[in-house]
Specification:
With 342 residues, the chain is an alpha+beta fold. It contains 12 helices and 8 strands. It has 3 domains: 31 residues, no CATH class; 143 residues, no CATH class; 112 residues, no CATH class.
């Protein structure tokens, strides 16, 4: 909500009482902070899902391919619900939560539970609730489950958002030079949002690069809830005219993108709209190099400070029985959810 509107509401409610006005402003500011955090987490998960679906699965057996596909579908459903853990204990800094005080699971914890690892989720939440996923690489049970699910601790770590301001990894992805790069970028204005579907109606104001058949003036739906009137740059990872525009349901045109104000990336470390557009259209390594050349803060050091670096840990080769158990758990979960919706 614009500050002018908040000020008007404060004046109407508080009738000049300073303490009341301060409380109204605090409540409004906190609500805006929560909304922005929800949008940020959803955007990160969307990018992680897109990269995961682009990964080759040739080395996986049939059961693990099925399990992996179902879990990625569930990750998409989790993102669209838009209910993520809340940090109520560390007011001075951002902090990951495996499970918050309301029982809300982070994306990785949710997928583990869907896949039958309820006891593992409970133990990690009890013993290491604020750990980064990369720090859980010493958990043999977690490594075994991920291998049986056709994933890895590196991939799971990429699903977890960074807990700092927007950094190079969140723009360029943390997947390395082989990550998908945008074929084009859309500049859009938000026309309105729908919290129930965690989406925003937008109008295309400008296009950069190969955007297929999308033209200026086109109305599109993008993911995330954003204030009406704000501007965003939305990367397209395949031209709209291509059959590759949607990878298993993740449409390039529905990614949230990045907010811009006064032709710059919104945030403490300014990047011009032109530079950001060029960075998005570069591969991951070139994208990070472009940002670092603009401001040293965008170097790899910012990623290490934000806990975005990858991790490496090997697990024993999974048995087909372990993958089958996860598959049975997923099918059971999906069946129960379908029954409760009737």
């Amino acid at each position: 909500m614009p500050k002018a509107c908040i000020g008007l509401i404060s004046a109407m409610i508080c009738a000049g009482h300073a303490d009341c006005s301060r409380r109204v402003m605090t409540i409004a500011t906190d609500a805006e902070r929560v909304r922005r955090e929800e949008s940020r987490v959803a955007a990160h998960i969307a990018r992680a899902e897109l990269a995961a679906r682009a990964r080759s699965v040739r080395g996986l057996d049939r059961t693990r391919r099925i399990v992996r596909g179902l879990l990625l579908d569930e990750l998409r459903a989790y993102r669209r619900r838009g209910v993520f853990p809340k940090n109520r204990d560390f007011r001075d800094r951002m902090m990951p939560y495996f499970v918050d005080d309301d029982g809300t699971r982070c994306a990785v914890a949710h997928l583990l539970e869907v896949g039958g690892a309820t006891a593992l989720v409970a133990r990690i939440a009890s013993e290491r609730n604020n750990a980064f996923v990369r720090e859980l690489a010493d958990e043999p049970e977690l490594l075994a489950w991920l291998e049986a699910a056709g994933s890895s601790v590196e991939e799971a770590a990429r699903i977890q958002p960074s807990y700092c301001d927007v950094n190079a990894a969140s723009i360029c992805s943390s997947e390395g030079a082989s990550a998908p790069r945008a074929s084009g970028v859309l500049e859009v204005t938000v026309l309105g949002s729908d919290r129930s579907s965690q989406s925003s109606a937008t109008r295309v104001d400008a296009v950069y690069g190969d955007v297929g058949t999308i033209a200026v003036g086109t109305n599109l739906t993008t993911s995330g809830v954003h204030p009406t009137g704000t501007k965003r740059l939305v990367p397209l990872y395949a031209p709209e005219s291509s059959s590759a525009v949607a990878r298993d349901g993740v449409s390039a045109a529905t990614l949230p993108g990045f907010e811009i104000r006064d032709d710059q990336l919104a945030g403490d470390h300014a990047v011009s709209k032109t530079d950001l557009t060029e960075a998005l259209r570069s591969n991951s390594a070139d994208c990070k190099a472009r940002l670092a050349a603009i401001d040293p803060w965008w170097s790899e050091r910012s990623e290490r400070l934000c806990g975005e670096q990858g991790c490496s840990a090997a697990a024993a080769a999974p048995s087909e029985a372990a993958s089958a158990q996860i598959l049975v758990a997923i099918v059971g979960y999906l069946g129960m959810r379908r029954m409760t919706r009737r």
